[in-house]
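Journal club prep, shared notes

We agreed each person brings one worked example of a sequence with its structure written out as tokens. Mine is Response regulator. I'm keeping it raw so we can talk through how to read the token line rather than staring at a rendered picture. Sequence first:
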Amino acid sequence: MTTANPSSLQAPAAPGAALDRSDSDVVLIVDDVPDNLAVLHDALDESGYTVLVATHGEAALQRAAQALPDIVLLDAMMPGMDGFEVARRLKASPATAHIPIIFMTGLTETEHLVAALEAGGVDYVTKPIKPREVMARMGVHLGSARKARQDARQAREARNALDAFGYASITVRAVDGRIVWQTPLARELLQSYFGEVGPDGAPTAFGQWAPEPVQAWLRRHVLADNAAELLAASLAEPPRLAVEQGARRLTFRLHQQAGDSEGGGDWLIVMREVSDAKIIESMSLSFKLTAREAEVLYWVVKGKINRDIGDILGASPATVKKHLERVFAKLGVETRTAAAAMAMNRIRQLHPQFEG
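Then the structure, token by token:
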């Protein structure tokens, strides 16, 4: 196994791109004592790991950011930046926060071990280092990290597949409405319908919060006193929310809980945009209506009165009435109800999925 040394890590093309991970896990050892580095380096190298080394805190942060190792073995006590601070900085960076850290320490007092765990360590080993013990502990945490990466990759693939088929997805934290992640299509749709919104649903320069109607809908279904009953009753048909924008409609469906249940948890919401432009066009062709007459008839089918239709189309109620009179004449009917029924029958024939 070839060992990666510091000089081999200069300016890789992208984080994690300089190392081949197909056959081995990458381990970063951070220790200011050469003898400790040598013992672990040789044992890990012989066991098939790719080994990186750093002898001080700044170098450790640089190596980790460049190579994104699978696990870090970190000396707690080093001159300058100690291991606790290194761990805190690694966990504070989104790029390295997922990397498990095992502390190596000669300190056995409870307060130091607690400090190591609070700084972000998942485990610790005491000095003098016993390589077989270190590798046994590494195996446990590498397995967990590997499963987490696999789950994350599968989730990404699923989200990309949803996007490809026109279903956008977001995960929203129920307690405060923060968007934990969103697919590119989801962001595009939310901006199109709501613009950028802040914690209270008001416009802002950041796209980190779900719109107020979505927050209210989510709270109603997962934070209400009877939320468990509502969700249990809706398993066959998950709760939905629809937001209309002219002939376009954006639907939200509560899919599943994606995080722990504290504070209501994080929830995966699947969105889909439906445009009735094709329906309006087919009504125009079927009944020989002008584009504007077909739009008026469409909104009659949707149950809108003339004043509402005028507001939607940017016309006066009187103009809408004239369009509607011509629609009645072309359809051979005398009332809105008859026109709507005839149009709905034709729509059902041509567009069975129409929700009305």
